[in-house]
Amino acid sequence: MPGPGSRDRRNEPYADRFLKPFREYEDDLGEDLIGGRARLNLSRPSRIPAHPRLVIPGDPASREAFDRAIQEDPASPLGVEVGSGMGRFLRGVAQARPDLVLLGCETRLGFCLKGLQKADRLGIKRLFMVWGDARATLPLLVPAGRASQAWLLYPDPWWKRRHAHRRHGARMAAALAHVLGPDGTLTLKSDVPLYLQAMARSFLETGLFRRDPGPGPDGFLPPTDRELRLRHDQISSFTFRLLRT
Ligand SMILES: C[S@@+](CC[C@H](N)C(=O)[O-])C[C@H]1O[C@@H](n2cnc3c(N)ncnc32)[C@H](O)[C@@H]1O
Questions:
Q1: Is residue 235 a contact partner of residue 13, using CB atoms and an 8 Å limit?
Q2: Is 156 a catalytic residue?
Q3: Which parts of the chain have pLDDT scores under 70?
Q4: CATH for 30-244?
Q5: What pTM does this model have?
């Protein structure tokens, strides 16, 4: 507990920090992509077991099941999450909305696999994970306008200058705008208000999104792993909703 006279900073843990600038509008992301552009051509490392719903951009065969899932039933809505970690949020969505096909994007291959294995144990069959930086993988994998909802939940604020280019700005906005159909919803959540505002501002500045005038998050949104930790530590989190223009 904070001592007498000190401020209780549990709800403002980042109050004295600021976001370092980064180049949001580079034409070619090149090595700014997490893992570098070369990763897009890599196949699955042998230490990672194959999984029928693990999509590896460098292995075209690995995307067949996902392609089938979104083509077989074009009316079946697609939901996309960027930065899924081990997929707790998507498993919650899958259980509440079995009609959705779900795609999680994650740069950590081990997390992709763990998330899928946990989904298997729950009998969830329509949740796919793609390995790699979503700024590159989403346009490669998802037909334009195919998704009805997207989520970007508790991304790392990357405080260090050398990591600032990993923050979500105009390039991520373009990738998410590519997958979302007109009026598709994008929910952003963060416990770092500064970062949430910066993301929302740069997404709106692209003209690809408008602010959702609605009252708040769409119905039931299951918690992410980070959200559960924040709740436990009684740290506030914030939500911003956008609509595809
Ligand atoms: C801070 S964690 C939050 C994970 C989860 N959303 C949660 O709330 O528990 C951010 C996750 O996003 C992933 N990530 C970061 N940038 C990404 C990108 N450009 N594309 C895909 N995944 C990304 C990281 O590997 C990490 O697992």
A1: yes
A2: yes
A3: 1-13, 15, 25-31, 215-219
A4: 3.40.50.150
A5: 0.90
